Prior knowledge:
4 helices; 35% strand; signal
Amino acid sequence: MQFLLKITLALLLLPLGIQAQKSTNPAAKGFNAAGSDPKAIAIADQVMEAMGGRKAWDGTRYINWNFFGRRNLLWDKKKGQVRIDIPADNSTYIVDLNKETGLIKHKGVVMAQADSIKKYAGVAKSIWINDSYWLLMPYKLKDSGVTLKYKGEMPTEAGAASDVLELTFEGVGRTPENRYLVFVDKTTHLVAHWQHFRKASDEKPGMSTPWENYEKHGKILISGGRGTNRKLTDIQVLSTVPKGKFLTF
């Protein structure tokens, strides 16, 4: 009787243990878990852990970086705000990413009309979507609208043994027709390379770069190297920023 009781209790507790394990890196609402491969999901969770862990990522507040020398971004991850400074054309966008509104200075001219503010706030959001994906894609493997497939083992262009994940999208972002192959180093569990396909049906990638030069910023790892001619620089993870950063040009 006691033996049967122990077995019953173990069976009752097993789903709770599995649930607790899964919840260490819960997927975003809208992630296509049903259509994704369990192995691909498990590898995505390994990536998150190798980058510092979900708790560290969730606790990250401000991220600053320069995108290929073209523009500087400061993202308030908690409030969903971004400041984008583009020195070459004297433009600054301070935008609420959820409401797509904010303060707009475009080519030296401060926008006052609602339609102009809406237009350039949309431009700013598109910039942020692109630039933040280049910087932070490994943290977004289980985002809303994503389907993850395991494509097998394959070496990167540098020869590193890797597990390859395929990311496709539905109903999200500005370019849901895109497809990515993400090469995860089998030893470090860090993203080592990626390939971008403009259309999911394309056989050859339009872009293929390494992910290099991982460094710890705050409590998380971020890679700034995307090959010889592409560098993400001035990367900072901050707990506070000057008060006026999201209030004034």
